[in-house]
Specification:
Blueprint: H1 4-13, E1 16-20, H2 30-34, E2 40-41, E3 54-55, H3 67-71, E4 77-80
Antiparallel strand pairs: 1-4, 2-3
């Protein structure tokens, strides 16, 4: 068991996904494909139509695996390492 201070330091280093920067996002859907918890989604579209991708985690289920951050070609994943936000 670590001390509360060590736990707080470790928590502050974990990158938490907050959403997607739609200005940077090229809608490649790599985040949708790679997220093991299916927290990214793209609404149903007509063939060939490119719609926004969304991140939704209302229950805080994201396990901070950072796969989406690594795979995003345009750094469009918005992260926050502040556990209070």
């Amino acid at each position: 068991m670590f001390s509360p201070l060590i736990n707080k330091i470790v928590e502050s280093l974990i990158l938490r996904v907050q959403g997607i920067d739609h200005e940077k996002c090229i809608k490649c859907v790599e985040c949708v494909k790679i997220c093991p918890l299916s927290l990214f989604y793209k609404p149903t579209t007509k063939v060939g139509e490119k719609r926004k991708i969304f991140f939704e985690d209302p229950h805080g289920n994201c396990n901070a695996c950072e796969l989406c951050i690594e795979i995003c070609p345009t750094d469009a994943i918005i992260v926050n390492n502040n556990p209070e936000n």
